Amino acid sequence: MRTATSFALLIACLASADCAGTIAPPKTFAEPLAREAIVILPGFGYSADGERAIHALAPEMRDAGFDLYVPRYIRRAGLDSSGERLRRFLRERRLDRYQRVHVFAFLAGGWTFNELARDTTVLPNLASVVYDRSPYQERAPRLAAENLGLLSWLRYGSVLSEMAKTPYAPLARANVNVGLLIETVPTGFVKRFGNTARSYGPYAFGCGDFSQPHADCIYASMNHTELYTRFDEIWPELRAFIRDGRFSAAAERTAPKEVR
How crowded is the C-beta side of 67, counted as CA atoms within 13 Å? Predict the structure, then answer.
């Protein structure tokens, strides 16, 4: 019974990217585009509900001059294999033809993309990256690997445990504007293993605690799942950062005082 409950919890709280498909405009253009592209890199929390929420924004983004791409890139074999799959997607979709490209990276997206971006031939037109970060959710891969063991591996292969063991490597690209969006609410999965999560060390919410140089940093009162399903609330801040190099004046810039 406990095994069945743990597996159900894993599926519910760490839904795989394989549950959702690729989002991209039709492959109809042949010449360099006087437009911009937004590439959203989902992670382990990306579900069909998240896909619908993000896909619903595609017309609004298109009207604002952006084409939306959400690749399905995470592979069971690990981060390197996921990176190569992402490289192939960017090449096949010919993102290099856009005037500028902007990336929003959920957690696994940042771990995957930053290593790939060390190759400056990957998205030479990269203009900005906004990273989703979370003191809570960044412990979820380790929690799953250590507490769910074989169930975690059966669902995700080695990529989840590999991410748990891999320190975050900051983006190593010049002339790219970087922003941080920090979640301040834990998911049910992290709450379920709250004592274990806290045993890994104190939670740090300061903008300088995420090993990533950045131009601006804001906080979102959402958990990881909500960040997908309520992406329409994030889009105005992402658009402001792309346009102005900073998030809006109304964005929350004060770190939470209490750990939940």
Answer: 22
Domain regions of the chain by residue span: 2-25+34-242
Give the CA distances from residue 5 to residues 9, 104, 179, 184, in Å, rounded to whole numbers and listed in that order. Answer: 6, 33, 38, 27
What is each CA distance from 149 to 13, 127, 142, 143, 144, in whole angstroms?
16, 39, 10, 9, 7
Q: How many CB atoms lie within 10 A of CB 231?
A: 19
Give me the residues paired with residue 132 across strands: 181
Contact 236, 199 (CB under 8 A): no
Please identify every stretch of the chain with a pLDDT value under 70, giving residue numbers as ranges.
1-24, 26-33, 260
Full-model pTM: 0.89
C-alpha to C-alpha distance for 230 and 14, rounded to whole angstroms: 17
Distance of CA 95 to the CA centre of its chain: 19
Residue 47 in tokens: 């579900």
Q: Which residue has the tokens 């190759």?
A: 119
CATH superfamily of 2-25+34-242: Alpha/Beta hydrolase fold, catalytic domain (3.40.50.1820)
